[in-house]
Amino acid sequence: MWKIGDTEIHGQVVLGPMAGITTAAYREFMRPFGIALAYTEMISDCGLIYGNEETFSYLKKGKGDRPLALQLFGGSKETLLQAIEILEQSGAEYDFLDINLGCPVPKVTRAGSGSAWLKRLDELEEMMRAVTEKSSRPVTAKIRLGWDDSSINFHETIKVLEKSNVKMVALHLRTRSALYSGDVDYHVAENLQLQMKIPLVISGDIFTYEKAKEALDITKATAVMVARGALGNPGLIRQINQIIEDKKVDSPVSLKTQIEYMRVFSRLLIEEKGELVAVRQLRGLLPKFLNGYPGMKPYKAMIVNSIVCFKDIEAILEQISKSS
Ligand SMILES: Cc1cc2nc3c(=O)[nH]c(=O)nc-3n(C[C@H](O)[C@H](O)[C@H](O)COP(=O)(O)O)c2cc1C
Predict the structure, then answer these.
(1) Whose CA is nearest to atom 29 of ligand 1?
(2) pLDDT, tens digit, for every residue of 153-180?
(3) pLDDT of residue 323
(4) Atom of ligand 1 at shortest range from CA of 229
(5) C-alpha 321 to ligand 1 mean position (Å)
(6) CATH 3.20.20.70 is held by the domain 2-244
(7) From-to residues of CATH 3.20.20.70 in the chain
(8) CA distance 130 to 122
(9) 27-80 pLDDT, tens digit each
(10) Class (C level, CATH) for 255-323
(11) Residues marked as catalytic
């Protein structure tokens, strides 16, 4: 057990925020595998201020979907404070307010949001102090190593965040310019947790339970964040929990079980988004559940190219079951 502010967190596997993926349905689907903490997708401060309907849809919460960090992004103190005011009055249910200081997408950084904050630590301190004062929930932050290789400043950024009363930091061990590529080196943050006053969650390339163990051992982080690694492989979360608890680690799940997971997740996403929107997302997500199982190439292609409703998904899953 560890704490963010006064709130107890049980478990050391955190589900990383992913725009377009970590919807209420995805979180609800993933929770039973042993998620200690999950995040919403990133939510635009201006989207909230302008009353954008889609932005507000990101505030939905799934069944059993706690503890939950609501992730906000924005480029100025003023708009972030305005957005927090709206959130506080919206009745949205969340446990922590997370500020995105790591998003590398040019559309976001050009507006001074996401990882662009890593280049303005004075302004960042002023903004975060105001945010932690305004928010009724404990504030957390998600950062990267720095803007680029020549400006790695996560030690300084963490100090600024600690001074600003932030209660937990998640660190993605890449720079803004590395985007999502290149192998992560956990030694960059060796023993980092021991130098910090608040919990550290370590993120980057947690694709296997061995990697999770390595990341925790080297950085001494309080928890590990899983993002891409669990896409189509929810069993990874259970495996990481098992290795952390010194238990026997499960073998990869059978294809039959994966098919059942695909069915459960499809139903949840359709319930949340409606068939049309959900199926569009499922075309990208469902094939990942078939990775690593032999002979699945044609079925993956069928999912990507031909599903338009739940019945089509059912029909393909049926075919896979019969063929295996
Ligand atoms: C498609 C996608 C969307 C993401 N969206 C967000 C986001 O909205 N907010 C955020 O803080 N990080 C976001 N991330 C970063 C992840 O949370 C994570 O830190 C990163 O992918 C590194 O972890 P991994 O190598 O285990 O995937 C996103 C990553 C991906 C791949």
Answers:
(1) 18
(2) 999 999 999 999 999 999 999 999 989 9
(3) 85
(4) 26
(5) 32
(6) yes
(7) 2-244
(8) 13
(9) 999 999 999 999 999 999 999 999 999 999 999 999 999 999 999 999 999 999
(10) mainly alpha
(11) 103
